Amino acid sequence: MAIHFPKSRDEWLTLRHKYVSSTEQAALHGLSPYMTAFELHHSKAKDTYTDFEAGERAKWGLRQEEAVARAMADDYGIKVRKLNAYVSKDGTGMGASFDYEIVGVKEGEPAEGRVLQEMYENNGPGILEVKTVDWLQFQRQWPEVEGEREAPAHIEIQVQAQLHVIERKWAAIGVLVGGNEFKLLVRDYDADVGKAFEARTKQFWKDLKAGKVPPAVFPQDADLIAHIYSYGDPSKVLDAQGNLEIEALCTEYMDAALLKKGAGDRQDAAKAKLLLLIGDASRVLVDGAITITAGTVAAARIEAYDRKAYRSFKVTKKASKNGAKE
User: Fold this and answer.
1) Which residues, at least 6 apart from 74, have a Cβ–Cβ distance to it below 8 Å?
2) Alpha helices (H) in the chain, listed in sequence order
3) Per residue in 15-61, pLDDT tens?
4) Where are the domains positioned within the chain?
5) Is 171 strand, coil or helix?
6) CA 186 – CA 72 distance, rounded (Å)
7) Can the peptide bond before residue 219 be classed as cis, meaning omega within 30 degrees of 0?
8) Cβ neighbour number for residue 177 with a 10 Å cutoff
């Protein structure tokens, strides 16, 4: 195990490019909501890293991390410390960044019980992963199974990969739900899972060196493929006559284009007809639990161009009591 202390974002990204990180591990198993194995292959095959910008939700999540960690320290009687390190596991091609680590216990009886204190006393230092999610996302993606809350698969994978890399026995996942509700998940290290991750990661780097590309996943990889093949050689002609697969895909593409155009035309016509009928009403109640909202979005100056005022337009149908659309 090697511990690195990057002094800048550029240095951290350079390190991350050399390893399959704990957040990228799920891509190797087809369980990442953010990237596929095909995309990961092309990312690591480049000589340098590609920088990325966090979305607004991720940025605010990072800002709330420290508050959640400090609150956990107070409520559960533990000592936490920011882990400003990038850790790699020798000979595996695996690496990981971390939020916090649990490094001790406080005196006195904690308000929320001794569960984390006991984990530290029995297993030594653990890692603390902090997540912030909205209420609806939590209900949909963090299911309760036999009385125990489960994190989404890519987060469970992330935590086990972190434990394998840093060689620790346990982790806590602190989840702030909707900004005002806290949930705690405690995870033991699973050595068999860690070994499986290690074997899969080694195979990934072996395949990368050999030029063996994982199969693309559609439609997720469509934009990346379009980018990879963005240049067409004007002097090159491919004779694909007799290639039944290309012929079938051409037919599929043309059929889809006609369906897309037809659907768009029908939607535009229906919208125009509805506007003629509703006039300047911004909200319309319709039989069948249907509601039309058609407010005015004001004109605005956006960067280097003027956006004209326009009507927002949305047709919704009230959900039934069981959550399905009526």
Assistant:
1) 111
2) 9-17, 25-28, 37-45, 56-76, 115-123, 135-141, 153-166, 191-210, 222-228, 244-278
3) 999 999 999 999 999 999 999 999 999 999 998 887 766 566 666 66
4) 2-210, 238-272, 280-326
5) strand
6) 13
7) yes
8) 18
- Say yes or no: domain 2-210 is CATH 1.25.40.850: no
CA distance 294 to 167: 57
Determine contact, residues 140/64, Cβ cutoff 8 Å.
no
Concatenating the DSSP letter of every residue in 206-237 gives HHHHHT-PPPP-TTTTHHHHHHHT----TT--
Do the beta carbons of residue 300 and residue 284 sit within 8 Å?
no
What whole-number distance in Å separates Cα of residue 121 and Cα of residue 102? 11
- Cβ atoms of 302 and 287 within 8 Å: the answer is no
Tell me the per-residue pLDDT of 168-198, one tens digit each, with 9 for 90 and over.
999 999 999 988 899 999 999 999 999 999 9
Beta carbons of 73 and 79 less than 8 angstroms apart: yes
Q: Which two tokens stand for residue 119?
A: 């984990």
Look up the pTM and report it.
Answer: 0.76
